[in-house]
Specification:
The complex is a heterodimer of chains A (218) and B (589). Chain A is an all-alpha fold and 218 residues long. Chain A is built from seven helices and no strands. The termini of chain A are far apart. Classes of the chains: A mainly alpha (218), B mainly alpha (589).
Chain lengths: 218, 589
């Protein structure tokens, strides 16, 4: 029974107060991980949503000065897309039992993620030394905080990636890592979607007036 | 209810769920300190929360001493007073109530009540407690750092929270924000555990609608907390950056001591939104577990099924959902658009519907019940009355026009102490008297318990009823001393003295309670198995207190809801959940 149809049960009725209501569920243990991941991504979504609302709210002020848009972020975005695709490849290979494909996918995902992280750090440095930098400009402060929290979120994924990779390279079979790779892939896709939204927001400059108006912020 | 019909078709095959690989402790340290057993973690949470709560209790005495007898105590100055107020509020709301309900009762009861051997991620569960413990230590450390703890008020509103003149501006506010961030990280770990355990690790036959309302309350509250705490996390990080790195998320152009600060362009109101987007659900994070627990206490001690179980579940979910769209009723005086206020007043009043439904159902559960005035029942009755009283003043404050004059007066203080201070604490006490035998194998001392109840219950009314009147007179909250005011009569000072004396007496009663906890551990009457004749699974374990792994060789199979009390045609007035028709209990050996 689905979650919502279960909520309509009437446990006090004689016919339901018997074994007839037994839920026969044989859950593979990995469903636990999947449920936990869903809730965790829910928590992360709220966190980034709060940041987005705060940013949008601040944009509506009269004295808003758009922040700089370092071109390097375009390159980093491509890196992140590639890492997500590589993990999808690893996931596909794991499902079809191809351990070499898993290795290639995982390695490529790690390399592209490393590229993204390095690119972000370089972008921070470039911005810090450019004439734009000004701690009291909210656009710049938001830029550092939002990208910083995103990198932290990514770092959490890297921990999972490391655990899976060490298993794969110490000779695990695809069946043993299939579910963890699937979860890791979901995590990376989520990271990518969040990044694309944040990227669009940070690079929107003054072009969000219509959207802000629709949301009643401006 | 008619006799429950059963036949051979009701036979349930033994559990087919895979048994969980339990972590077995090898030394004293891994068994009692870095334990992965949810029951030990629950008690660790409860003891830590009680210890820090005791600090907050002492702080409340100091606050009351200053309010009742101003200019008497040399050791309380204005800065110290603000620090007491701030720390008292934050500790009680976050580090005591949230931690005790979800970390304490959640950990202890969820696996037992849903028929699991432990939480699904025991290691993460252990980390959750130790991060909470670290958060408490960081909070306490602010007393020993230059400038002391923050005195910004528990709401920590910027810009004043991080400006000169606010006590604890140097280190206190930094420690407070760090501690909150840690608490949230630790809670998220625990919260994921509670939710996933309830959704995935229930034993055979434990459908969602056969879960005790205690589990439902904790479940919905945990989801609220998981979704609400990120707002506080974001707020805390942003204010930390404002304070430490000089960003201006919340700081407008501002002059301090005649000097233009470097800050500029931030929005203090933004912090209020983030804070209350967490802060209002927080009220229900505390209230929903209390609602759930009290439903079980009332049903068990009135020997009657919960009236309208399904409505009770739906009301919990509805209250949880509504609690996310009422936050700005804490900000009516922040200069918001009047339409905005109208919207939030409406949603606030709508929340009274599911809440009132719950109150009616508790009363109807009592109706014609075989009420036993045990200690858990006394505290449950105390809760219902107190919650109704505190809730009704909430209807006043939810209306913009009434709220504006009452804002920041003692009326507000009296309101929220009744509704989310005294009422949930009543449930906590009732729950401790109820489950202490399960945790220790002994009953708490009845006489000391009655003393504790009557002093606490009557005392709470003697403290907070007069406080509403002081609020009506216009006495502001958070003032160190009133000085000469034309609108507050002399008699208000007498009333304040009375409140202070009563508060000290009620505080003493809590010491008796703590002594009872300690004393009964060794000297209490040895409890028989399932002393309250309850139906839910936590009482059906082979040993009491439950051992490692909770249940016997096999997990219990659940055949019925937990409220089969006084079923007509059945000799015993209760049928535990794991008893099949005409059979013997499963999983009890």
């Amino acid at each position: 029974m689905s979650f919502f149809s279960e909520l309509t049960a009437k446990p006090w009725l004689p016919e339901q107060a018997t074994a007839g209501g037994l839920n026969v569920r044989a859950l593979p243990p990995m469903n636990v991980g999947r449920t936990a991941l869903k809730f965790f991504l829910g928590v992360a979504s709220v966190l980034f949503f709060m940041l987005i609302v705060a940013y949008a709210g601040r944009m509506a002020f009269e004295d808003w000065r758009p922040g700089p848009t370092p071109w390097l972020l375009w390159q980093n975005t491509i890196m992140l897309i590639l890492s997500s695709m590589a993990l999808q490849w690893a996931h596909y290979s794991a499902t079809s039992g191809d351990i070499n494909g898993v290795r290639v996918g995982l390695f490529a995902a790690g390399a592209f993620t490393f590229g993204f992280l390095t690119g972000q750090v370089i972008a921070w440095q470039q911005l810090g030394t450019s004439g734009y930098f000004e701690a009291t400009n909210p656009a710049i402060a938001f830029f550092y905080m939002i990208t910083g929290l995103h990198v932290l979120h990514l770092a959490g994924g890297v921990v999972g990636w490391t655990a899976i990779s060490s298993k794969v390279w110490s000779g695990a079979r695809t069946a043993e890592v299939r579910e963890s790779i699937a979860l890791c892939t979901i995590y990376w896709h989520f990271l990518l979607v969040v990044w694309l939204v944040l990227f669009a927001l940070l690079f929107s400059s003054d072009n969000l007036d219509v959207l802000l108006a629709i949301c009643g912020i401006k | 209810m008619a006799d429950i019909g059963h036949d051979a078709a009701d036979y349930a095959p033994p559990a087919e769920l895979e048994e969980v690989d339990l972590y077995h402790a090898k030394s004293w340290i891994t068994k009692y300190v870095f334990s992965q057993d949810a029951k030990v973690i629950g008690i660790q949470y409860a003891l830590t929360a009680t210890a820090i709560g005791l600090v907050a209790l002492v702080l409340s005495w100091l606050i009351r001493l200053q309010l009742g007898f101003p200019d008497t105590f040399n050791f309380i100055d204005a800065a110290g007073y603000y620090q007491f107020v701030t720390m008292h509020g934050m500790i009680m709301v976050v580090y005591l109530l949230t931690a005790l309900f979800l970390g304490g009762f959640g950990n202890y009861l969820i696996p037992l009540m849903v028929g699991a051997r432990d939480m699904v991620f025991p290691y993460v569960n252990m980390l959750s407690f130790w991060i909470y413990f670290l958060a408490v230590l960081v909070l306490v450390s602010s007393w020993f750092l230059p400038g002391g703890p923050t005195g910004a008020g528990w709401t920590l509103y910027p810009p004043q929270a991080i400006m000169q003149g606010t006590p604890g501006r140097e280190w206190g506010i930094i420690m407070m924000l760090l501690s909150l961030a840690l608490f949230i990280i630790g809670f998220t770990m625990g919260g994921l555990n509670y939710v996933v355990t309830i959704l995935q690790a229930r034993t055979r036959g434990m459908t969602l609608m056969r879960m005790p309302l205690t589990v439902w309350g904790i479940f919905v509250a945990t989801i609220l907390a998981l979704l609400a705490f990120p707002a506080l996390f974001v707020g805390a990080i942003m204010m930390l950056l404002d304070r430490v790195l000089g960003t201006s998320f919340f700081m407008p152009h501002i002059v301090e001591l005649g000097e233009h600060l470097k800050y500029g362009g931030g929005s203090p109101i933004l912090f209020q939104h983030l804070f209350w987007f967490f802060g209002h659900p927080e009220v229900y994070i505390v209230a929903l577990p209390a609602f759930g627990i009290v439903s079980d206490l009332i049903s068990t001690h009135a020997r009657k099924n919960v009236f309208g179980y399904r409505m009770m579940v739906w009301a919990l979910v509805a209250i949880g959902g509504l609690s996310f769209i009422v936050w700005a009723h804490h900000m009516y005086v922040s200069g918001m658009n009047p339409y905005f206020g109208f919207f939030f007043a409406t949603t606030t009043l709508i929340i009274a519907i599911p809440t009132a439904l719950k109150v009616y159902n508790w009363v109807l559960t009592l109706w014609k019940g075989n009420i036993r005035l045990t200690l858990p029942m006394l505290f449950s009755l105390g809760f219902i009355v107190t919650f109704v009283n505190g809730g009704i003043t909430g209807l006043f404050l939810g209306n913009v026009v009434v709220d504006v004059p009452l804002s920041d007066t003692l009326f507000v203080v009296a309101h929220f102490h009744m509704v989310m201070g005294v009422a949930p604490i009543m449930v906590i006490f009732g729950a401790i008297y109820h489950w202490y035998p399960l945790m220790t194998g002994r009953m708490l001392h009845e006489g000391m318990g009655k003393f504790h109840f009557w002093i606490t219950f009557l005392g709470a009314y003697l403290i907070y009823f007069p406080m509403h009147y002081l609020g009506f007179l216009g006495m502001p909250r958070r003032y160190f001393e009133m000085g000469e005011t034309s609108f507050v009569p002399e008699s208000a000072a007498t009333l304040n003295e009375f409140i202070t004396v009563t508060a000290l007496i009620v505080g003493f009663a809590q010491m008796v309670f703590l002594f009872n906890l300690y004393w009964s551990r060794r000297n209490g009457i040895v409890a028989e198995k399932n002393p309250w004749h309850a139906n839910s699974l936590e009482w059906q374990t082979p040993e009491m207190p439950p051992g490692h792994g909770n249940f016997g060789k096999e997990l219990p199979v659940v055949y019925r809801w937990p409220y089969d009390y006084s079923v007509p045609g059945v000799e015993a007035d209760f049928i535990p959940q794991n008893v099949p028709a005409g059979g013997t209990a499963t999983g009890a050996e």
